[in-house]
């Protein structure tokens, strides 16, 4: 559902807790605040 709503794949992985599926770059260089994650969840 999140992908269909146009949510960034890295945010989807973070919400789903799939940190193992994240690349090293995603783990190190991408950080999201709570508002960004909540906004993504609210699009469902």
UniProtKB/TrEMBL annotation:
Transferase recorded as keyword: no
GO molecular function terms listed in the Swiss-Prot or TrEMBL record: DNA binding
UniProt superkingdom: Bacteria
One GO term (biological process): DNA recombination
Keyword tags: DNA recombination
Family annotation (InterPro entries): DNA_brk_join_enz, Integrase-like_cat_sf
Name of the molecule in the record: Tyr recombinase domain-containing protein
Protein source organism: [Bacteroides] pectinophilus ATCC 43243
Organism lineage string: Bacteria, Bacillati, Bacillota, Clostridia, Eubacteriales
């Amino acid at each position: 559902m999140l992908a269909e709503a146009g949510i960034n794949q890295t945010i989807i992985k973070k919400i789903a807790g799939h940190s193992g599926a994240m690349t090293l770059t995603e783990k190190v260089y991408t950080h999201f605040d709570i508002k960004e994650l909540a906004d993504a969840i609210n699009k469902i």
